[in-house]
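Lecture 7, part B: from sequences to assemblies.

Below are the input chains for today's worked example.
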Amino acid sequence: MARISAIMNANPLTAKKDTTISEAARLMAGKPHGCVIITEDKKPLGIITESDLVKNMASKKINPESKVSQIMSSSVTTIPHNSKLENANKIIDTKGFRRYPVVDKEGNLVGLVNENDVVQAINDNIRFHRNLQNTVLILFVAFEFFVFILYRYLINYFPFLR
Amino acid sequence: MIRAKTIMTENVVTVSEAASLNEAAKLMLNRHVSTLMVAKDSKPIAILTENDIVKGFASKKSAKVKDVMSRRFLIVNPDTTYTFIIKKLREEKIRLFPVAEKDKLVGIITETDIVDATRDFTRFHQIMQEVILTVFGLVTAFFLFFFSPLGQSLRSSLA
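Predicted structure of the full complex, as C-alpha coordinates:
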Protein backbone atom coordinates (compact mmCIF):
# COMPACT_ATOMS: atom_id res chain seq x y z
CA MET A 1 0.00 0.00 0.00
CA ALA A 2 1.38 3.36 -0.99
CA ARG A 3 2.28 5.80 1.74
CA ILE A 4 2.54 9.56 1.76
CA SER A 5 6.34 9.41 2.00
CA ALA A 6 6.45 7.88 -1.50
CA ILE A 7 4.75 10.83 -3.19
CA MET A 8 5.77 13.79 -1.06
CA ASN A 9 8.26 16.47 -2.07
CA ALA A 10 11.22 15.85 0.26
CA ASN A 11 12.71 19.32 -0.20
CA PRO A 12 10.17 21.84 1.12
CA LEU A 13 11.10 25.50 1.42
CA THR A 14 11.62 26.41 5.07
CA ALA A 15 12.38 29.58 6.97
CA LYS A 16 12.83 30.71 10.57
CA LYS A 17 10.09 32.76 12.20
CA ASP A 18 12.16 35.97 12.22
CA THR A 19 12.44 35.96 8.41
CA THR A 20 11.00 39.03 6.71
CA ILE A 21 8.05 38.80 4.36
CA SER A 22 10.10 39.94 1.36
CA GLU A 23 12.73 37.28 2.06
CA ALA A 24 10.00 34.64 2.07
CA ALA A 25 8.80 36.01 -1.27
CA ARG A 26 12.32 35.75 -2.68
CA LEU A 27 12.49 32.12 -1.50
CA MET A 28 9.24 31.27 -3.25
CA ALA A 29 9.82 33.17 -6.49
CA GLY A 30 10.03 30.91 -9.51
CA LYS A 31 9.67 27.70 -7.47
CA PRO A 32 6.79 25.27 -7.91
CA HIS A 33 6.31 24.69 -4.14
CA GLY A 34 3.84 27.53 -3.64
CA CYS A 35 4.52 27.93 0.06
CA VAL A 36 7.20 28.37 2.70
CA ILE A 37 6.96 26.44 5.95
CA ILE A 38 8.04 28.34 9.05
CA THR A 39 9.95 25.98 11.34
CA GLU A 40 11.49 26.06 14.77
CA ASP A 41 13.83 23.16 15.70
CA LYS A 42 12.57 21.34 12.59
CA LYS A 43 8.97 21.48 13.89
CA PRO A 44 6.47 23.25 11.59
CA LEU A 45 5.14 26.38 13.30
CA GLY A 46 3.24 27.99 10.47
CA ILE A 47 2.85 28.19 6.74
CA ILE A 48 2.87 31.12 4.36
CA THR A 49 1.50 30.60 0.86
CA GLU A 50 1.63 32.54 -2.36
CA SER A 51 -1.96 33.66 -1.89
CA ASP A 52 -1.14 35.04 1.59
CA LEU A 53 1.52 37.22 -0.05
CA VAL A 54 -0.79 38.30 -2.86
CA LYS A 55 -3.49 39.13 -0.33
CA ASN A 56 -1.04 41.16 1.72
CA MET A 57 0.20 42.93 -1.38
CA ALA A 58 -3.32 43.87 -2.47
CA SER A 59 -4.33 45.23 0.92
CA LYS A 60 -0.88 46.72 1.74
CA LYS A 61 -1.69 46.22 5.40
CA ILE A 62 1.67 44.96 6.53
CA ASN A 63 5.09 46.30 5.59
CA PRO A 64 7.08 43.73 3.58
CA GLU A 65 10.06 44.25 5.88
CA SER A 66 8.19 42.96 8.94
CA LYS A 67 8.36 39.38 10.18
CA VAL A 68 6.57 36.50 8.46
CA SER A 69 4.93 35.55 11.75
CA GLN A 70 2.52 38.47 11.19
CA ILE A 71 0.85 36.98 8.13
CA MET A 72 1.56 33.24 8.42
CA SER A 73 -1.18 30.78 9.27
CA SER A 74 -0.12 29.18 12.56
CA SER A 75 -2.06 25.96 13.48
CA VAL A 76 -0.84 23.99 10.52
CA THR A 77 -2.54 20.75 9.56
CA THR A 78 0.21 18.17 9.13
CA ILE A 79 0.10 14.69 7.65
CA PRO A 80 2.18 11.86 9.21
CA HIS A 81 4.77 10.49 6.77
CA ASN A 82 3.55 6.89 7.12
CA SER A 83 -0.17 7.55 6.64
CA LYS A 84 -2.00 5.80 3.82
CA LEU A 85 -3.17 7.76 0.80
CA GLU A 86 -6.82 7.23 1.73
CA ASN A 87 -6.30 8.63 5.23
CA ALA A 88 -4.44 11.63 3.80
CA ASN A 89 -7.31 12.12 1.38
CA LYS A 90 -9.77 12.16 4.29
CA ILE A 91 -7.74 14.86 6.04
CA ILE A 92 -7.63 16.89 2.82
CA ASP A 93 -11.38 16.48 2.32
CA THR A 94 -12.21 17.78 5.77
CA LYS A 95 -9.64 20.61 5.89
CA GLY A 96 -9.82 21.81 2.29
CA PHE A 97 -6.30 23.23 2.10
CA ARG A 98 -4.07 22.55 -0.87
CA ARG A 99 -0.66 22.05 0.72
CA TYR A 100 0.29 20.07 3.81
CA PRO A 101 3.61 19.69 5.64
CA VAL A 102 4.54 16.03 6.18
CA VAL A 103 5.98 15.17 9.60
CA ASP A 104 7.64 12.10 11.11
CA LYS A 105 6.87 10.47 14.48
CA GLU A 106 8.65 13.15 16.49
CA GLY A 107 6.82 15.91 14.64
CA ASN A 108 9.85 16.96 12.61
CA LEU A 109 9.22 18.31 9.13
CA VAL A 110 10.22 15.83 6.41
CA GLY A 111 8.34 16.97 3.33
CA LEU A 112 5.50 18.74 1.62
CA VAL A 113 2.56 17.21 -0.19
CA ASN A 114 -0.11 18.91 -2.26
CA GLU A 115 -3.69 17.92 -2.94
CA ASN A 116 -3.16 17.17 -6.61
CA ASP A 117 -0.35 14.67 -5.94
CA VAL A 118 -2.52 12.70 -3.51
CA VAL A 119 -5.56 12.69 -5.78
CA GLN A 120 -3.54 11.62 -8.83
CA ALA A 121 -1.78 8.85 -6.87
CA ILE A 122 -5.12 7.49 -5.62
CA ASN A 123 -6.51 7.55 -9.15
CA ASP A 124 -3.48 5.59 -10.39
CA ASN A 125 -3.96 3.00 -7.62
CA ILE A 126 -7.64 2.56 -8.39
CA ARG A 127 -6.96 2.11 -12.10
CA PHE A 128 -4.23 -0.43 -11.40
CA HIS A 129 -6.51 -2.41 -9.08
CA ARG A 130 -9.35 -2.35 -11.56
CA ASN A 131 -7.16 -3.67 -14.36
CA LEU A 132 -5.78 -6.38 -12.09
CA GLN A 133 -9.26 -7.40 -10.98
CA ASN A 134 -10.53 -7.61 -14.55
CA THR A 135 -7.58 -9.79 -15.56
CA VAL A 136 -8.23 -12.16 -12.65
CA LEU A 137 -11.94 -12.34 -13.54
CA ILE A 138 -11.22 -13.17 -17.19
CA LEU A 139 -8.76 -15.90 -16.18
CA PHE A 140 -11.33 -17.30 -13.76
CA VAL A 141 -14.06 -17.45 -16.41
CA ALA A 142 -11.64 -19.15 -18.82
CA PHE A 143 -10.81 -21.70 -16.12
CA GLU A 144 -14.51 -22.38 -15.46
CA PHE A 145 -15.17 -23.08 -19.13
CA PHE A 146 -12.10 -25.25 -19.35
CA VAL A 147 -13.21 -27.39 -16.40
CA PHE A 148 -16.72 -27.63 -17.84
CA ILE A 149 -15.52 -28.87 -21.22
CA LEU A 150 -12.99 -31.22 -19.71
CA TYR A 151 -15.64 -32.69 -17.39
CA ARG A 152 -17.92 -33.65 -20.28
CA TYR A 153 -15.01 -35.36 -21.96
CA LEU A 154 -13.64 -37.13 -18.91
CA ILE A 155 -16.91 -38.70 -17.72
CA ASN A 156 -16.76 -41.06 -20.70
CA TYR A 157 -13.60 -42.62 -19.29
CA PHE A 158 -14.08 -42.25 -15.54
CA PRO A 159 -17.59 -43.35 -14.56
CA PHE A 160 -17.12 -42.29 -10.93
CA LEU A 161 -17.21 -38.64 -12.03
CA ARG A 162 -20.81 -38.98 -13.05
CA MET B 1 -14.75 10.40 -22.32
CA ILE B 2 -14.32 13.59 -20.32
CA ARG B 3 -13.72 16.70 -22.43
CA ALA B 4 -12.10 19.99 -21.58
CA LYS B 5 -15.40 21.85 -21.87
CA THR B 6 -16.97 19.90 -19.03
CA ILE B 7 -14.20 20.53 -16.50
CA MET B 8 -13.15 24.09 -17.38
CA THR B 9 -13.98 27.22 -15.41
CA GLU B 10 -15.92 29.49 -17.74
CA ASN B 11 -15.37 32.65 -15.79
CA VAL B 12 -11.95 33.93 -16.86
CA VAL B 13 -10.63 37.19 -15.39
CA THR B 14 -8.40 39.14 -17.75
CA VAL B 15 -5.92 41.90 -17.01
CA SER B 16 -4.08 44.21 -19.39
CA GLU B 17 -0.31 43.84 -19.68
CA ALA B 18 0.26 47.47 -18.72
CA ALA B 19 -1.44 47.09 -15.32
CA SER B 20 0.63 47.24 -12.16
CA LEU B 21 1.14 44.16 -10.00
CA ASN B 22 -0.79 45.75 -7.19
CA GLU B 23 -3.85 46.13 -9.42
CA ALA B 24 -3.47 42.53 -10.53
CA ALA B 25 -3.25 41.35 -6.91
CA LYS B 26 -6.39 43.31 -6.04
CA LEU B 27 -8.19 41.79 -9.02
CA MET B 28 -7.25 38.27 -7.86
CA LEU B 29 -8.43 38.98 -4.35
CA ASN B 30 -11.76 40.51 -5.37
CA ARG B 31 -12.66 37.89 -7.96
CA HIS B 32 -11.39 34.93 -5.89
CA VAL B 33 -9.14 33.50 -8.59
CA SER B 34 -5.51 32.42 -8.53
CA THR B 35 -4.79 32.96 -12.20
CA LEU B 36 -5.34 35.92 -14.49
CA MET B 37 -5.30 35.84 -18.25
CA VAL B 38 -3.26 38.61 -19.82
CA ALA B 39 -5.07 39.79 -22.92
CA LYS B 40 -4.07 42.15 -25.68
CA ASP B 41 -6.83 43.28 -28.06
CA SER B 42 -9.05 40.57 -26.47
CA LYS B 43 -6.56 37.87 -27.51
CA PRO B 44 -4.90 35.80 -24.77
CA ILE B 45 -1.14 36.32 -24.90
CA ALA B 46 0.11 35.24 -21.47
CA ILE B 47 -0.87 34.20 -17.98
CA LEU B 48 -0.31 35.74 -14.58
CA THR B 49 -0.23 33.36 -11.62
CA GLU B 50 0.22 34.03 -7.92
CA ASN B 51 3.79 32.82 -8.27
CA ASP B 52 4.50 35.48 -10.91
CA ILE B 53 3.18 38.20 -8.62
CA VAL B 54 5.39 36.89 -5.80
CA LYS B 55 8.32 36.96 -8.23
CA GLY B 56 7.64 40.62 -9.03
CA PHE B 57 7.17 41.39 -5.34
CA ALA B 58 10.56 39.79 -4.58
CA SER B 59 12.44 41.70 -7.27
CA LYS B 60 11.34 44.91 -5.54
CA LYS B 61 11.17 47.34 -8.48
CA SER B 62 7.71 48.61 -9.32
CA ALA B 63 7.09 45.81 -11.78
CA LYS B 64 4.30 45.77 -14.31
CA VAL B 65 2.30 42.73 -15.36
CA LYS B 66 4.27 42.42 -18.60
CA ASP B 67 7.60 42.05 -16.73
CA VAL B 68 6.59 38.95 -14.82
CA MET B 69 3.84 37.27 -16.83
CA SER B 70 4.58 33.74 -17.94
CA ARG B 71 3.92 31.84 -21.11
CA ARG B 72 4.05 28.40 -19.56
CA PHE B 73 0.64 27.16 -20.59
CA LEU B 74 -0.95 25.13 -23.34
CA ILE B 75 -4.03 26.28 -25.23
CA VAL B 76 -6.47 23.44 -25.71
CA ASN B 77 -9.80 23.32 -27.51
CA PRO B 78 -13.12 22.41 -25.87
CA ASP B 79 -12.98 18.86 -27.22
CA THR B 80 -9.52 17.99 -25.88
CA THR B 81 -9.74 14.92 -23.66
CA TYR B 82 -9.05 14.77 -19.95
CA THR B 83 -6.46 12.02 -20.55
CA PHE B 84 -4.42 14.32 -22.80
CA ILE B 85 -4.48 17.11 -20.22
CA ILE B 86 -3.37 14.76 -17.41
CA LYS B 87 -0.56 13.47 -19.61
CA LYS B 88 0.72 16.99 -20.26
CA LEU B 89 0.42 17.84 -16.56
CA ARG B 90 2.56 14.88 -15.57
CA GLU B 91 5.12 14.75 -18.33
CA GLU B 92 5.69 18.43 -19.01
CA LYS B 93 4.54 19.90 -15.69
CA ILE B 94 2.16 22.31 -17.44
CA ARG B 95 -0.44 23.39 -14.91
CA LEU B 96 -2.61 25.79 -16.88
CA PHE B 97 -4.75 25.07 -19.87
CA PRO B 98 -6.68 27.99 -21.36
CA VAL B 99 -9.54 26.67 -23.46
CA ALA B 100 -10.02 28.51 -26.76
CA GLU B 101 -12.39 27.96 -29.62
CA LYS B 102 -11.35 29.60 -32.90
CA ASP B 103 -9.06 32.14 -31.16
CA LYS B 104 -11.81 33.05 -28.73
CA LEU B 105 -11.15 32.32 -25.08
CA VAL B 106 -14.02 30.32 -23.58
CA GLY B 107 -12.55 29.08 -20.29
CA ILE B 108 -9.53 27.97 -18.34
CA ILE B 109 -8.51 24.70 -16.67
CA THR B 110 -6.42 25.17 -13.53
CA GLU B 111 -5.06 22.66 -11.05
CA THR B 112 -8.21 22.97 -8.94
CA ASP B 113 -10.38 21.91 -11.89
CA ILE B 114 -8.08 18.95 -12.57
CA VAL B 115 -8.27 17.86 -8.91
CA ASP B 116 -12.08 17.97 -9.01
CA ALA B 117 -12.23 16.06 -12.29
CA THR B 118 -9.82 13.41 -11.00
CA ARG B 119 -11.89 12.94 -7.85
CA ASP B 120 -14.98 12.36 -10.03
CA PHE B 121 -13.02 10.01 -12.25
CA THR B 122 -11.80 7.99 -9.24
CA ARG B 123 -15.34 7.68 -7.92
CA PHE B 124 -16.52 6.50 -11.36
CA HIS B 125 -13.78 3.85 -11.42
CA GLN B 126 -14.77 2.63 -7.96
CA ILE B 127 -18.45 2.34 -8.93
CA MET B 128 -17.53 0.49 -12.14
CA GLN B 129 -15.46 -1.94 -10.10
CA GLU B 130 -18.43 -2.70 -7.82
CA VAL B 131 -20.78 -3.15 -10.80
CA ILE B 132 -18.42 -5.57 -12.58
CA LEU B 133 -17.97 -7.64 -9.41
CA THR B 134 -21.72 -7.82 -8.75
CA VAL B 135 -22.59 -8.86 -12.31
CA PHE B 136 -19.82 -11.43 -12.33
CA GLY B 137 -20.94 -12.86 -9.00
CA LEU B 138 -24.54 -13.23 -10.16
CA VAL B 139 -23.51 -14.88 -13.46
CA THR B 140 -21.22 -17.33 -11.66
CA ALA B 141 -23.91 -18.23 -9.14
CA PHE B 142 -26.42 -18.89 -11.92
CA PHE B 143 -23.87 -20.93 -13.90
CA LEU B 144 -23.10 -23.17 -10.93
CA PHE B 145 -26.78 -23.66 -10.10
CA PHE B 146 -27.72 -24.42 -13.70
CA PHE B 147 -25.20 -27.24 -14.11
CA SER B 148 -25.52 -28.67 -10.61
CA PRO B 149 -27.98 -31.49 -9.76
CA LEU B 150 -30.35 -28.83 -8.33
CA GLY B 151 -30.63 -27.23 -11.75
CA GLN B 152 -31.76 -30.50 -13.30
CA SER B 153 -35.43 -29.51 -13.48
CA LEU B 154 -34.58 -26.14 -15.06
CA ARG B 155 -32.38 -27.82 -17.65
CA SER B 156 -34.97 -30.43 -18.56
CA SER B 157 -37.76 -27.84 -18.83
CA LEU B 158 -35.64 -25.83 -21.26
CA ALA B 159 -34.75 -28.84 -23.38
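Note for the exam: Chain A touches chain B at residues 22, 25-26, 28-32, 34, 50-51, 53-55, 57-60, 64, 115-116, 119-120, 122-123, 126-127, 129-130, 133-134, 137, 144, 148 (CB under 8 Å). Keep this in mind when comparing with the next example.
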